[in-house]
Amino acid sequence: MFGHRYRFRADGPTMTWTCQRGCAVGGSKSYASAAEARKFATAFDKEDADDLGRRAPLLGMLPLRMARAVRQLRRR
After folding, report:
1. Among 33, 32, 43, which residue's Cα sits nearest to residue 9?
2. Do residues 26 and 56 share a domain?
3. Are residues 52 and 75 in the same domain?
4. CB burial class (10 A; 0-12, 13-18, 19+) of residue 19?
5. Which partner for 36 in 2, 31, 40, 75 could form a disulfide, CB atoms 3.0-4.6 Å apart?
6. What is the pTM assigned to this prediction?
7. Strand 6-11 vs strand 26-30: parallel, antiparallel, or unpaired?
8. Which helix (H) or strand (E) holds 63?
9. Residues 57 and 40 placed together within one structural domain of the fold
């Protein structure tokens, strides 16, 4: 019903991924360097909730965009 929730990590030049929900789904990919594997693992290992309000449609999600803007102003 909810699908997989992949977590990505880099082990040297190899990026690996597994499902956080405990199923046996996963895999790996080798890169030319450890830095490249780390870069891709960091880019892919994000939750949709982390971007809530940033990628929202302009008018339909205006309250989320405004709440995010207020949170960013308070952090400064």
Report:
1. 43
2. no
3. yes
4. middle
5. 31
6. 0.58
7. unpaired
8. helix 62-75
9. no
